[in-house]
Amino acid sequence: QDTGIAKTDADGRLQVVIGAIIDIHDRMMAEEKILQQNELLAKANKELDHFVYSVSHDLRAPLSSILGLTHIYTLAKDQTERDGIVSMVNDRAQVLDRFIREVLDYSRNTRLELHMQPIVVADIVYDVLKGLDHMEGISSVALQTDIPSDVSIVTDRERLKVVLSNLLANAVHYWDTSKKSFIRITGSVSDGMLLM
């Protein structure tokens, strides 16, 4: 950045020039960094707005059902009918609880640093299945695993557990009761990628 003035004599001939030249490279770099950070912040805010809207929408559905069922409960006179309503409230509450846990898992995953380490895939699948042992409905679904013990990858153990746990929990929760349902888990590594 430069600035200056020139002095001339009565005939308009240049006599002297006084000025300064300042190196503003660092300032320009700092301004560019601020612009990039502002763009990232704007993008993060947009994603956060979308996330909040999506979560609030998904939370309202089971909550509205629970509120409606509690109102019906106050009007019901027959104990059998009341018992059925309580069972439906419990089902809706479990859906709500499951969704909140998924949101918490997502939030935790976005804040935690990656801890990459070698993982034996069969071991982590076993851990996830043990964690789902007491899930409602899991005893009605046949579980089959076909993952060789030498299949391993380098990844973040906890994040992989969250992904597998959510996939398997959804498979159990949404199984077709009219069919003989099963979950078959396979695993192999091809071109450095885990295929399941």
Helix content: 55-70%
Give the total of beta strands. 8
Radius of gyration: 31 Å
Query: What pattern of helices and strands is seen along the backbone?
Result: EEHHEHEEHEEE
Shape: elongated
Q: Which strand order does the major sheet show?
A: 1-2
- Based on the structure, what is the oligomeric state of the protein chains? single chain
Total number of helices: 4
Structural class category = alpha+beta
Distance between the terminal alpha carbons, to the nearest Å? Answer: 59 Å
* pLDDT < 50 stretches: none
What are the SSEs and their pairings?
Blueprint: E1 2-8, E2 14-21, H1 25-75, H2 79-111, E3 116-120, H3 121-131, E4 142-146, E5 152-156, H4 157-173, E6 182-186, E7 188-190, E8 193-195
Helix pairs in contact: 1-2, 3-4
Describe what this molecule looks like in 3D.
The chain is an alpha+beta fold and 196 residues long. The protein is built from four helices and eight strands. It has a two-stranded antiparallel ribbon. It has a two-stranded antiparallel sheet with strand order 3-5. Strands 4-6 form a two-stranded parallel ribbon. A hairpin with a 5-residue loop joins strand 1 and strand 2. Helix 1 runs antiparallel to helix 2 and helix 3 (121-131) packs across helix 4. The longest helix has 51 residues, at 25-75. The chain is elongated, with a radius of gyration of 31 Å. The model has no long low-confidence stretch (mean pLDDT 84).
